[in-house]
Amino acid sequence: xxxxxxxxxxxxxxxxxxxxxxxxxxxxxxxxxxxxxxxxxxxxxxxxxxxxxxxxxxxxxxxxxxxxxxxxxxxxxxxxxxxxxxxxxxxxxxxxxxxxxxxxxxxxxxxxxxxxxxxxxxxxxxxxxxxxxxxxxxxxxxxxxxxxxxx
Length: 151
Prior knowledge:
single chain; mainly alpha; two-stranded parallel ribbon; 8 helices
């Protein structure tokens, strides 16, 4: 199979990991999205993107955890669960491996810089997909900060 033929299939799997990072995804689920065997998928994904599919998924989860730790008043355990890790120990070790400090150290460092937190109860009430907020539209359907055409 030519590589140019498989790239759109790999993108489908990568998009699945990007959208559903908090869900329990495994190599088989990602390979199914690409419509190839898990062994072939793993090899092609690593050749194309420079990291294994599971490493990519872990990195996406840690990136999302960084966003939450910077902006939301949640415990490290709550963030761990929200981003799809089932074990606080594996979350903390992967976070430290990728970021260079523990999740708690990261959160505390950002908290010391100031900036208001979003209350965790609000996030849980609205759902994790609420944050970060989407740009709102005015009643006329215009983008905020943009003037109407011809104005």
